[in-house]
């Protein structure tokens, strides 16, 4: 019986180590290199570049005609986000003419530059301070097809399975198994 418990503990430890190694890399680095990504929002591809971190996910808020980017950034270094927005996904217009977007970083209004404008897309350059977690871009028009977005991995689910594995291993080792006599 002790040999079986030892094997169970070994399997639990190996599983936990694998899960920890799977989630550790995104959180391990104190500084970030520039991250260039293309993320899909519904049927649209958004190209982003974040100089002090990475974009983890993009969600659509249809109620406010906005897109919300969840970002992971350096705690010590400011950076900038460059994002190309397809007009078919989100746009900002007043009387059929281009109008400025409203940009919020961690809920505070932020200055930004519109660096490129074409008939199909608009590119924004947004300063992102160290430690920022969210960037919201608010327009006046949002595609009716953009109700869902994806982009990131939910690391909390992976961590929860790792913790559950440790608890299970602890219980299997410490709680005696009662067997019925034959």
Structural overview:
The protein has 182 residues and is of the alpha+beta class. The chain has a domain at 30-154: Chondroitinase Ac, Chain A, domain 3 (Sandwich), CATH 2.60.220. 26% of the residues lie in helices and 39% in strands. The protein contains two helices and 14 strands. It has helices at residues 2-28, 155-174, and strands spanning 35-41, 44-50, 53-61, 66-73, 79-86, 90-91, 93-94, 97-98, 102-105, 108-109, 113-117, 121-128, 134-138, 141-142. The strands form four sheets. Strands 1-2-5-12-11 form a five-stranded antiparallel sheet, with no helix packed on it. Strands 3-4-13-9-10 form a five-stranded antiparallel sheet, with no helix packed on it. The protein has a two-stranded antiparallel sheet with strand order 6-14. A hairpin with a 4-residue loop joins strand 3 and strand 4. Helix 1 (2-28) packs antiparallel against helix 2 (155-174). The radius of gyration is 23 Å and the shape is elongated. The chain starts with a helix and ends in an 8-residue tail after the last helix. 21% of the residues are buried. Mean pLDDT is 75; it is low at 146-154.
